[in-house]
Amino acid sequence: MSTQQQATAERRTGTQGMINNLMEERRQMLVLFCQVAGLEPYARTESLEQLLQNFCQVLVDYTAFGHFEVFGKISDGTERRSQVLHVAEEIYPGFVEATETAVAFNDKYDISDHALSFDHLSEDMSLLGEEIAIRIELEDRLIATMLAR
């Protein structure tokens, strides 16, 4: 195997590992999202507060992974395939919008620095769910392009 072929194989292995990690982060976030959503109508309980806290942490981890790992690889020049760069550029605005919604949700419902109000949790979960669905569609487009040979 030539040095060029070996380098390409190593990059693809790294890409596959990164995608596997992203998918695991996504899976964990979706499981917790469904658990929180399944508790509606929301009544203040310690278990809901703890579940919401866990969800916020995983949501932030998932959101950060997409930005710092996936788009970080693209923006730092590690990814050189023009089709991947084109798709990344195309989806980035929607990706940022979904991220901003997730960060706003976390800021509102992370109980580490303020008391919680559940008055708008149902609406906020609905909006977040819509943005997560959009983000997943965008991620899947990028992933498909990254995995294309």
From TrEMBL:
The family database entries (InterPro entries) matched by this protein are listed as: Rsd/AlgQ_sf, Sigma70_reg_Rsd_AlgQ
Recorded coiled-coil stretches:
none
Q: Is Transit peptide among this UniProt entry's keywords? A: no
Q: Which domain of life is it from?
A: Bacteria
Q: Which UniProt keywords apply?
A: Transcription, Transcription regulation
Keyword check for ATP-binding, yes or no. Answer: no
**What are the BP-aspect GO terms?**
regulation of DNA-templated transcription
UniProt family annotation: Belongs to the Rsd/AlgQ family.
- For this entry, the protein name equals Regulator of sigma D
UniProt organism field: endosymbiont of Ridgeia piscesae
